[in-house]
Design goal:
This protein is an alpha+beta fold. It is about 40% helix and about 20% strand. A seven-stranded mixed sheet has the order 1-4-5-9-8-7-6, with helices on both faces. It has a two-stranded antiparallel sheet with strand order 2-3. Helix 5 crosses helix 10. Bound molecules: zinc ion. This is Phenylalanine--tRNA ligase alpha subunit.
Length: about 350
């Protein structure tokens, strides 16, 4: 019986030694030390032994059991340690590897141009005003001297939501809303940047959604020469100190008189090139003295107050400034295009 136990012990210890994972050790434990294991079986036969042999065999059986148990425990510890070491090895950081570059984004060229224009007017004492893009017919048209059936409405084929609500076709409603808030008291001095919407067939120079920046000044004794001064400062700061400006008569329903402003071509200096269409001048924006009707509708006494307003397209400014040939580039999110404006 002792020989049998001796054999079982050696067999078990060998299997423990050869076990390569914790699962194999668990199997050894169950098969040798379990209730149905061979050692238990051997001990069941103790009854057949003489009273002298029993304690000897019993003690030896315990010795075998202890030997297997402690061999199991140390092998378990060894394997667990190996697992930890393996993990440490795998997860170690090689500090000599080159780092992954952090890719830095940049402002969208339109955002950059708008912020540049905003900063410029802020230094001249303007504040930035914003308003809703979903606008009422009243603020978008009527308060700006464009009553229903006014022919100039046709120039702004619009996205109507109901008969009285539409996507604003210009940022001018912000002017009307701001004037209203002043309750007939000046001065008003704002620029209003934002998106506007007009039904249009998109092409290289047209988009159904685009940006506008408008400016408005209302105060006593504001004159056309003040407008000219502000626009000239803008043109020089934006396109170069040696820019000249010229004002041409034009028509807008909400200003009287109305003008278009051209700047001398920054590419050819006035000699004529493809950018200025060989005229030496580039059209930049529309402006004029605020129509008395617009002032009155917003609660200002047009005998006491005068004002000027101007409006420009940031897309056009950016296209000219950066030589961009297609307005659609601004809205198609092509990174190859956008990444070119890292320093813009
Ligand atoms: Zn030119």
């Amino acid at each position: 019986m002792q020989d049998r136990l001796q054999a079982l012990k050696e067999e078990a210890l060998l299997k423990i030694e050869q076990a390569s994972d914790l699962k194999a050790l668990q199997d050894v434990k169950v098969s040798y030390l379990g209730k149905k294991g061979p050692i238990t079986e051997v001990l069941k036969g103790m009854g057949k032994l003489s009273p002298e042999e029993r304690p000897v065999v019993g003690a030896y059986a315990n010795e075998v059991r202890d030997a297997i148990t402690s061999a199991l425990e140390s092998k378990v510890a060894e394997l667990e340690q190996a697992v930890i070491e393996e993990k440490l090895k795998k997860e170690s950081i090689d500090v000599t590897l080159p780092g992954r570059p952090v890719r830095q984004g940049n402002a969208h060229p339109l955002t950059a141009v708008i912020e540049e224009i905003e900063d410029l007017f802020l230094t001249m004492g303007f504040t930035v005003a914003e308003g809703p893009e979903v606008e009422t017919d009243y603020y978008n048209f009527e308060a700006l001297n464009l009553p229903k059936d006014h022919p100039a409405r046709d120039m702004q084929d619009s996205f109507f939501i109901t008969e009285d609500i539409l996507l604003r076709t210009q940022t001018s409603p912000v002017q009307a809303r701001t004037m209203e808030k002043h309750h007939g008291r000046g001065p008003v001095k704002i620029i209003s940047p934002g998106k506007v919407y007009r039904r249009d067939d998109d092409d290289a120079t047209h988009s159904h959604q685009f940006m506008q920046i408008e400016g408005l000044v209302v105060e006593e004794n504001v004159r056309l020469s003040d407008l000219k001064g502000v626009l000239e400062t803008f043109a020089k700061k934006m396109f170069g100190e040696d820019r000249k400006i010229r004002l041409r008569p034009s028509f807008f329903p909400f200003t009287e008189p109305s003008v278009e402003m051209d700047i001398s071509c920054f590419k050819c200096g006035g000699k004529g090139c493809s950018i200025c269409k060989h005229t030496g001048w580039i059209e930049i924006l529309g402006a004029g003295m605020v129509h008395p009707n617009v002032l009155e509708m917003a609660g200002f006494d047009s005998k006491k107050y005068t004002g000027f307003a101007f409006g420009m397209g940031p897309e056009r400014i950016a296209m000219l400034k950066y030589g961009i040939d297609d307005i659609r580039h601004f809205y198609t999110n092509d990174l190859r295009f956008l990444k070119q404006f890292k320093k813009a």
